[in-house]
Amino acid sequence: MTAASRTLRALIPLALGIAVLLAWEAMVAAYRIPRFVLPAPSAIWQALLADFPSLMGSLWTTLRVTLFAFGLALVSGVALAVVFSQSRIIEMALYPYAVILQVTPVVAIAPLIIIWVGFERINLALLILAWIVAFFPILSSTTLGLRSADHNLIDLFRLHGASTWQILWRLRLPSALPYLLNGMKTSGGLALIGTVVAEYGAGSGTATGLAWRIIEAGNRLQIARMFAALFLLALLGVTIFFALALLEYWALRKWHESAVTKDI
Amino acid sequence: MTAIASLHRIERSFSNGVKALGPLDLNVEDGEFLSLLGPSGCGKSTALRVIAGLLAPTAGTLVWPHGRPRIGFVFQDATLMPWAIVRDNVRLPLDLEHVPRAEANSRAEAALARVGLAGFSSAYPRALSGGMRMRVSIARALVARPKLLLMDEPFAAVDEISRDALNEQLLKLWREDGLTIVFVTHSVHESTFLSTRIVALSPRPGRIASEFRFTAPAERTSDWRMTPDFAAAARQVSIALRSAIANAA
Hints:
The complex is a heterodimer. By secondary structure, chain A is mainly α.
């Protein structure tokens, strides 16, 4: 990609965004739409500035749970995938339950987990719920990656007397890296969604994350504040995605086909 | 000639019971350049994997009269680790044997120099051409100083010009190191050029159809490829291979 086309790629969506915001502002003014139906972008911005400290506090709460859940999902997902790659029996025994955990909607499990863990440890309950959602993409992508190691290379390792540990560390894990990094992009977004859904499940007063700000503002018809919280949530999601995409590019840029830029 | 490996009535069947190879009786003689020549699916790669110990025969025995030597293996594809630079790829057999890093690095560099890739040790495999990757693969097979080198159609995916050059380089390495090479190929010309002995295998299940010994000139170069002697030898091999296939059909 040339520098000019890269600039265009950033400018075009930015220009569209600004145009939409301007049209939105003008429509709200022209049709005198009440604030509690659709606030103008300027009103949302004011709400964001006015509530900045409390919104940032909530953002931090949500971010903290998200990052913990993601980290936990990463460690446990990779560890279980490694166990699966070493033992077909354990994989056969556990994989269906991992799938059940994945396909059961987290909103449906949330009340149960929250009751079990207790409202006094609500952040732990949120962590568990977000982990349940974030865990599976890591597990499944890493399991696939560990199994995708070149069979001829495995033969070569065996020919030179490699131990199981050497094959895992020097061959299977590097082969799984592109798969893992891709799974992490999915999992990072899901950790945030899991946290927010769990906060909704926890409901009134106990959770103090961004989801709770949205519920609270909705109950009071403070729609501008609702939009402000929503905006921060979207910003957080995008940031997580880009951070992980950057990590993926940085880790694979030298050798993986997905990161190759062909000049000719 | 003393045998370094003896295959006795070796057979290998697929899991559905269809026989892919054998029974095969074959001695690999010390210092020879032996080509296993045959059409696709005749079990020649299977035979090579059995010798390497990567596949267990379903029947028959493999004997090493003087003990199992160090074995190097070269696959049809270069089979390099894409995440590792060329030097680290070549060093792999030494790393697996816990050779100290400094010694392993200098041996890897020396092996790369021998295949004419001295300046490429810190390149990633994807930056190299197919022929260069194959030379990295050969350097990796040589770095652990094997006695027996097993090659499974190593130049099948390389263009003809590179292939001719690689053939000559391989002969040089074979002579310098006193290697024994078992070379699987489906190319009559390649096996005629390289081998001191050719064993032609019949189609599935692979059995020995005919055998040739060559008293080729010690210095086989591209000039020899142009001589009537070479053409006559290749013709003889070609006819034998054709009748092997016809008899099996």
